[in-house]
Each structure stands twice: as C-alpha cells, then as structure tokens.
Amino acid sequence: MAIKATTEPGRPAESYAILECRRRYGCEAHAFAGSDDALYDRHLTFDNIAGPASTDARERFEAFARAVRDVLSKRWLKTDAVYAQRNPKRIYYLSMEFLIGRSLANNVTNLLLDPIVRQAIKDDNMDWVSLLEQEPDAGLGNGGLGRLAACFLDSMATMQLPAIGYGLRYEYGIFKQTIQDGWQQEHPDNWLFRPDPWEVTRPHEKVEVKLNCTLGIREGRMHAIAGRPSTLIGVPFDRPVVGYGGETVNKLRLWAASAPDGVYYGGASGNGTVYQLTNSNNASWSETVLYSFSGGSDGVSA
User: Is 292 inside any structural domain?
Assistant: First the structure.
C-alpha cells in the first residue's frame, strides 16, 4: 500500500516497487540488471572474464545467484550485528543432513524480489525456468529428517530467532537417478562440480580436530590404525538462510575437512607419501559422500 501511495502520475507502480526493494536492502546505488554497472551484469562479465554473448546458461545462473546474494548481504551483516549487540540466547541446530533443495527461487521469494526479478528477466531476455534448472539440488540430505531440519532453519529465520545450523559439506549427494530399460541406474551426484554461488568460505575460522587414529594402507586397502594420532582441519562454509520478508538472514554453517599443512614426506624412503595420502583421505572421506558404500573399506564394515 505504501508503494501505491508514493506513485506519481506517469510513473508505473512497478518501478516504485523495484526502487523500494533496492532501498530496503541498501543497494539503491546499483541496478540489479540491464546496465553494464548492474549487479548481475558485473558478475556475468567479471566473474567469468567473458562477454555476455559468450556465457552459457550455467554462468548466467551463477551471476544471477551472486547478484541476489549481493542484495541480501547487508541484511545478513545487520542480522549478525544485532545478535552481537543484544547477545541473546542462541539456537544451534546440529544435523547430519539438511535437505535444502535449490536456493535461488526460495531466496527470491523470501526476499520479496519478484518485481526486480521480473524486470531483470525482461531487460536481459532471460528464460527464468531454464535459469532455475541450472542449479543442482544441494547434496546435503536425502530423507525426511534432512527436510525437517531445513524447514526448521527457514522457520526460525522467518520468526527472527537467533539460530544457526551446523552440518557437513558433502561433495557428493547420495546419487543421481536415471531409468534405463525399466531399471534404476545410479550415477555420482557431484553437486559441487561447479562453484556454489551461495556459500562463503571462512578459512580464518578453521579448527583442528584431534583423532586417536589414522588410516594406513595394507594389501591395497585402507584400514584404521588405532593409537596413531592424526589431525583434521575443519573449514567452515556459510550459506544464507533467509526468513520470509527478508528481515532476518541466519546462516547454515557447513564444515569441510582438509589435511593439515606441512605433511611429512619421509625422505627418500617414500613412506611419507603414504602418510600424506592417508592423512588427505582421513580428511576427505569424512565429508565427501552423503552415504558411503557400507560394504567397502570406507563403509561401516571396515
């Protein structure tokens, strides 16, 4: 109603809705799309070092998603600042799964960016459905508990509760499914093969995780060796969780594992190479696949 009340004769209400959206999120200085200096167009050019005519559908999706992330960034910072100032009790939701699905349409809806998106699609002659199809489902969950966890995060952000989700940044989901001759065929779900435009890496907040075992190679297979301490490095990746209306932007923090720096090589004997590889596998296997194969050395029967 406020938008209609400020509409001047000869100015379409849609343009005021766009200006109101940009003002709400503190990005009045930059259009979303339609000019060389617009958020979408700058990402399209400078992130890919390519002209708009030579970019593909996936690159256009990444640019669009990063432009939406630009819009929500100040509100994300403001949310963190309010929590730091008021120091309220926090909700920490830990889950092995978060079935969050695709983020672009969800974030556009929750931020109430429909007027901006409609104009951007019109200005750049984009196919909105095709753009949405470029985003893979995040391979972070599979079942009902993962979907419930994702819904809790969305609801808490909408209710403006100071909450954060914690999980693992799986590189592979459970699998991609195709049907061939009436039978299900499973394929690797490498959902992070292309850059995820939503996540923000926080390497300065990495942590060490001490273990009382490591992995060794025996007869060509990996085995856990108890009593030989090893270390994993946990690196956090933050994703925005936008409440409906855009007033609150909480975060989902996903942890990726890596090997520590300065791994010993073992000199001319080459034994250190095995040490290096097993430490790297200690790290990567802990969060590479959503559900590891239970019959092998990396599954439950090892």
Answer: no
